Structures are given as C-alpha cells and as structure tokens.
Amino acid sequence: MSGEIAFVHSALRRGGAERLRYTVLKELAERNVACRVCLFNGDGDLVPAVRDLGIPVDVLNVSGKIYSLKTTLRLADWLKKTQPSIVHGGQFLTNLHTTAAAKLAGIGPVIIEEHGHNRWKRWHHRMLDRLVCSRADGVVCCSGSVKRVAQASMQVPDDRFHVLHNCIDLAEIGGRSETRSTVRGSLNVADDEILVGTVGTLRPEKGHSVLIRAWRQLCEQHSDIRARLVIVGDGPIRQQLHDEAKDVPGIVWAGSRSDVGEVLAAMDVFVFPSVDEGLGIALLEAMATGLPSVVSNEGGIPEIVTDGETGLIVEAGDSNALCEGLARISREIDLRRALGSAAQMVALSGHTPSVYCQRLLDIHRQLSS
C-alpha cells in the first residue's frame, strides 16, 4: 500500500461536490496527508488548482457510463498500480465503478459519498445500489436526510453510514468591505435598497421558480420595501426562468461568477428556496459571511439552520410563505443582525475544513483498524 488516499471523480468542474473535494484536498495537503486523484474523463477547471497543491491527478479517459465494464477494469488497473490505503468515490457513477473496481483490485477500505437525495434514480439504479454500492465499507452522507434516503436505497446496516456535514473554504468567502459598494454599483443596486440574493446552479430542484413567484408577490403586496433580488448562477433552465421573470421587477441576473465571496458581501439577505437539497454549500458560505437567510425546510437544510435563531425557515415550494419571510426579514434590521451573527458563529465553529477533515480521518482510522 502506498499510504495515499485515492479520490475518484468523473471530472473536477466547479460543482458543489467538486468544490467540496478541492476544499478537503487543500486541508489534507496542509496536514501533509498523502492524496491522489483519479478522473474518468476530462480534467475540469479545478484540476490546475489541485495540482498546485502538489497532489497528483490521473485521467483514465474512459466514459464513466453506468454499464461501462471498460471503466471499471481501467479503474481496477489504476488501483492495482497506485495501491492506495483507502479509496473514495464521489457521486453515483463514481461510487458504482469505484466500489466494483476496488473489490476487483483487492484494495480497501472503500468509502462512497452521497451528496444529494438522488430522487432521479429509477428501479435499476436502486438495484445497482444494493448489488454494488452496498459493498462499500463506509458511506459518508452530507446530512441525516441524505443518509435516510441512501440507507433505504442500499439497504445496508446503520453503522456503515457516517453523517458529515459539508465544510466551506473560508478563503473564498467574505469580500472586502471596500468592494461592497463596487459590487452593488455593478448590479445597479442603490445604497438604500435591500439586496436579497441566492447562489446556485439553475436547476429545477434549487427552487428558483418558487423564488420568482415569491418575488412577484413581494413587489405587488409589499411595495413599500425597496429591495432588489440578485440571482447568481447559470444552468439548464436559465431561459425558462428568464421567461417566468420577464415582467417581474427588481431581478438582477448575475450569471456565473468567480467572485461569489464579493457578491455575498454585497448582500443584505440570503435566500435558499430549494425543493430538493442534500445540505447546500452556498448556504453555508452565506452563513459564514454573516448573512441572515430565509430558507426552505427541505432535506438537510434544517440540520444547519434553526428557525428564528440562525435564519427563517419556510415550507418548501410555498411562494406565499417565502414572500412573507422575505418581507419580514427585509423590514426588521435588528432581526437581520441577530440572525446573521448567530449563523456566522454556527458556520465558523462547525463547518470548517479542519473540523471536516479531522472527522473524515477519524472515519478512516475506524475503517482501517
């Protein structure tokens, strides 16, 4: 065994799971923990940053499709060659191939990770979970909600599951105070306007349609509130959302941004209206910035937000409730300050890379003993 931890991904682009992986790799590199990354296809825009940490990244140039025997065999050969001490799969496809390849190569322990509820899975995906993924030695889930769904799909003992809430890269959040006015100016937001914002890929599960309906209601029913809504992100339903919002005032479409920390620092309120959410790295980043939030009660979100203490929680998919929550938090400056301060304490005390990696290494020791 090489003593290295091997992390397997399809690619390393800037998705939530991949950003989390980079944050973890950076912390492990600072601890001088030997790591190696294997990708199925394509490098991805995070690869140069990972290599800058001194961590090797190998690309197999295989498809990564569900039933690709070639992918499993190539990964098994790679594992035999590199001989890692422990292997991590990252999402469903990599979990599947990683578990099968590690067993073929005689390498272990094998840890797979679940970052969402994966409600898209059909009967044959669940069958593969039970036949292949259930053979992993450990399953790390980003929330208790995700654990419950994964456990029902895999049907394996409870002691094989480990709930490990996501962590955030503190270096990437918290814009400088002098850039707040600059960012707000670039978004055409006046100093006396409340800037409400959300960050996330434009996909149905993120609840942007609900947010647009709630914002329409806010503008119609609470016209005394001077506020703007900035939506940061891009994705497959961008045009659909633009069409839904074409006659709704006060919405700024910021698209994908590399300066999310600066944009968060320019906001007054964060809104997270997901209708299907494992946990939410964007929400943790907003909390760490000191932003008060209005969030849905979906998935793992209530595991990190306490209603009335670190944010306001509303029913997922309920635009009326979301509208009223936004109206309340926009009007009550003392509430915003109290929620934001408490949220920041929670994020900075329990969701740092140091806390996450220590717990992850504890899991490694437990499985290796």
Key features of this structure:
seven-stranded parallel β-sheet; 15 helices; 45% helix
Describe the structure.
This protein is an alpha/beta fold and 369 residues long. Helices cover 45% and strands 15% of the residues. The chain has 15 helices and 13 strands. Strand 1, helix 1 and strand 2 form a beta-alpha-beta unit. It is elongated, with a radius of gyration of 21 Å. The mean pLDDT is 92.
Helix content: 40-55%
**Order of helices and strands, N to C?**
EHEHEHEHEHEHEHEHEHEHEHEHEHHH
Q: Which geometry do the CA atoms define?
A: elongated
Overall strand count? 13
Task: Write a compact overview of the structure shown.
The protein has 369 residues and is of the alpha/beta class. The protein has helices at 16-30, 47-52, 69-82, 92-105, 123-131, 144-154, 177-186, 208-221, 238-244, 260-266, 281-289, 301-304, 319-331, 333-350, 353-368; strands at 5-9, 35-39, 57-59, 86-89, 110-114, 138-141, 161-163, 194-199, 227-232, 251-255, 269-272, 293-296, 312-314.
